[in-house]
Design a protein that fits this description.
Helices cover 25% and strands 16% of the residues. The chain is of the alpha/beta class and 482 residues long. The chain folds into 2 domains: 351 residues, Rossmann fold (3-Layer(aba) Sandwich), CATH 3.40.50; 52 residues, no CATH class. The strands form 5 sheets. Strands 1-2-3-7-4-9-10-14 form an 8-stranded mixed sheet, with helices on both faces. Strands 15-17-16 form a 3-stranded mixed sheet.
Length: 482
């Protein structure tokens, strides 16, 4: 596989490995460590080509591991994480880049990739098509000219990693390093499906050591009713009162449930119309649906990812779409005339969801991430005494959830983890956890024995950076990276 990838040739306008010399909005000169960008072709038949951004470690880039960070969607660029969550330079509302004291590259080389094709600077052959024969106008923010799916992306990201580490034009110096996959939301699908692919490879140019999926899409049945800023979340967080909650959850105002547990509304009575209107006002109209219909005259005045803070923040999409930023990132060769930080809202028509995880159209009997995790743990168990077998290096799988994420709520994640069916770790299902203490976490494999533990650690990494950075440095730091 690697040998075939080495022969792939990109046009001269598409750099494979280019150093970022400066960034518009950063007054400190060159980035604090080496930053690299480039394009990787992952499917020659469709010219599907992904854009990546690699941040070198501030500690020791020659020996530190590689962490691959994923944002969700599906349809969101991981550059949201780079410039708003855990990257070394964060964009503010004035389009200025400020140093992040909790950046994840303090102890690791960190990779960010824009996928699927059509997101950000990544593209396919159809991205250049225009006119009536175009499957979707590239400028549209609700669809993509490129088709993809969960399983296709897992295959393409496997090819991307093999190219980055196995092709001398990219980063052969990173071959053989410890590799960690981490991400949030729909990365709960990206990470385990990719890990399964990576673990099955023979003599790969990486050593997969750990997975961390936080606030993750995992299993429709387990997370039913705890997705999409649901009625129960709104009541628990005080967004609606008990009377409204009881009205909405009763048979008079709910006609049924979707496959992800969203409520099918009944509005025949004045009481139900009033209750649903109060709910919409409290949630800015974005609750109880994978793709909520806009409500005329109702602005988005809360943060759709926390529901407890105001909306707004830096215009990352506008900044990355600027000509000077494109030039600085060596991305001018992308045919995408309009930069999209995301497409749609939690999915778009050209993306096929293959699993029953945050999937409102899942086929009956479709597998979920519970099934994929069981496969992964079985690989780990078979290889526990022989690291030459598939799964041999992986011995840390963390599934966590924050307490203020309304899109993928903590209660559904807990049920999904329990559904795996592994024995509860010694100490019970709940325990205090301190990011600056040692010996706090239990892995899914300890000496070949399968265990599980549900960790209520913190909200998303951008909202509680100190615990996240401490966990990264401590748990994946001295214990795993030395």
């Amino acid at each position: 596989m690697i040998a075939s990838l080495l022969t792939a040739a990109l046009p001269a306008t598409l750099p494979t490995r280019a150093r970022v010399a400066s960034l518009p909005g950063y007054s400190g000169g060159a980035p604090p460590t080496a930053h690299w960008t480039g394009f990787v072709e992952v499917d020659a038949a469709t010219t599907t080509t992904f854009f990546y951004y690699l941040v070198e470690s501030a500690n020791d880039p020659s020996t530190d591991p590689l962490v691959w960070w994923f944002n969700g969607g599906p349809g969101a660029s991981s550059f949201a994480g780079l410039f708003a969550e855990n990257g070394p330079l964060l964009l503010n509302a004035s389009n200025q880049l400020t140093p992040n004291p909790f950046s994840w590259n303090q102890r690791a080389n960190v990779l960010y990739v824009e996928f699927g094709p059509g997101i950000g600077y990544s593209f396919c052959a159809n991205s250049s098509r225009a006119g009536a024969d175009a499957p979707c106008p590239q400028a549209s923010g609700g669809c993509s000219p490129c088709r993809t799916s969960d399983d296709t992306l897992a295959e393409q990201n496997t090819k991307l990693l093999a190219t980055l580490l196995g092709d001398r034009r990219y980063f052969p110096e990173l071959a053989g390093r410890d590799l960690y996959l981490a991400g949030e939301s729909y990365a709960g699908v990206y990470i385990p499906t990719l890990a399964r692919q990576l673990l099955a490879r023979q003599q790969p140019p990486y050593r997969l050591r750990g997975l961390w999926a936080t606030d993750p899409c995992t299993d429709n049945a387990a997370q039913s009713g705890w997705l999409d800023l649901g009625v129960s979340f709104a009541w628990q967080k005080g967004l609606i009162d008990k009377a409204t909650y009881e009205a909405l959850t009763g048979p008079a105002c709910t006609a049924g449930r979707t496959k992800v547990g969203d409520r099918v509304r009944k509005t025949e009575t004045i009481v139900c119309r009033g209750a649903w209107r109060l709910y919409d006002l409290a949630t800015a109209g974005i609750g109880d649906a994978v793709h909520p219909a806009p409500i005329a005259g109702l602005p988005l005045y809360i943060d759709p990812l926390s529901a407890l803070g105001p909306s707004g923040g830096p215009d990352i999409e506008g900044w990355l779409g600027r000509g000077d930023v494109r030039a600085a990132l060596h991305a001018t060769g992308s045919p995408n005339s309009v930069y999209h930080l995301e497409l749609g809202n939690n999915g778009y028509p050209q993306y096929a969801l293959d699993y029953a995880a945050c999937n409102d159209a899942a086929a009956d009997g479709a597998p979920s991430m519970v099934d994929v995790y069981r496969e992964i743990v079985e690989m780990m168990t078979r290889a526990s005494t022989n690291e030459e077998e598939e799964g041999g290096g992986l011995c840390s799988v963390i599934v966590s959830s924050g307490d203020i994420d309304p899109v993928v709520d903590i209660h559904g994640t807990e049920v999904a983890v329990t559904k795996l069916g592994f024995a509860v770790a010694t100490g019970g299902e709940r325990r205090p956890w301190f990011y600056n203490a040692s010996g706090a976490l239990v892995y899914l494999c300890v000496g070949g024995e399968k265990k599980n533990h549900f960790h209520n650690l913190f909200p998303n990494p951008d909202q509680r950076p100190t615990p996240a950075a401490g966990w990264l440095d401590g748990e994946w730091g001295s214990a795993r990276w030395s």
